[in-house]
Amino acid sequence: MRARKSSDLISPTGLIRLMTHAMMGAALGLTFGLTLILSNPAVASLLDHGGSQAAIVFALTLVTTFAIGATLTGAVFILVEDKQT
Fold first, then answer.
1. Do 22 and 71 form a contact (C-beta atoms < 8 A)?
2. Which end of the chain is less crowded, N or C, counting CB atoms within 10 A of the terminal residue's CB?
3. Where are the domains of the chain?
């Protein structure tokens, strides 16, 4: 019977890899938000009339959504990579 090894997610290296995925997701969310504002004048107008609070909520929503998605995807990638080795 093979000894079961612990997952790479629990190790310090796994946590660093997950944080890297989260940071990539946050950067992608900011890039998507900037692209959306530049390509769609209606969004820029809504943010202009909404004030600074609207811009903060817009940015935080996109950053959080993309960061969570990238982190979960990174966790799946790490777990699949564990099973292959």
1. yes
2. N
3. 15-84
